[in-house]
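Blinded run. Sample ID left blank on purpose so nobody reads anything into the name before looking at the predicted structure. Input follows.
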Amino acid sequence: MTRNYRDHVFNSNPGLFKKIILYTGLAVFYTYGVFWCIVKKNSVKNTSDVLRVFYYGFLRLRREHVIVEKLTSKELVVVSVNPCPILKLSLLLGIDTRYSCKLISETVCKRVLKCFNSRLVFTRDYNYIRPYSSGCREKIYFSS
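Blinded prediction complete.
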């Protein structure tokens, strides 16, 4: 059974208990990210490396869960359709993924990518994010 979340109202301002759960998730993911920063510091030289090291390595996504929309020498755009723990947690708690993903995922992903290469910039399209869309669109590019 597929649920339609477009009309569902999720909480974008969770209470203290839910914030504690979210910040615990952030702490766990951040700790994992620190490990990757130590092991893979300065390991990304191009966007193909970003795909391999970040998506398949750090995020541990399967190739079939990463739809590559654009891959150039300067930019990578993907849509992730993986079974996502942050999505599952957000649905369980009734929290808007635009809030929880910005707090947990985006915070850590930006930091880890900077460890891989200081010129990497991470953005997420919050108009194309689950459960409102079929996947989560992200862009990673090299700054000038």
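Unblinding after everyone has recorded impressions. The first strand starts at residue 66 and ends at 71.
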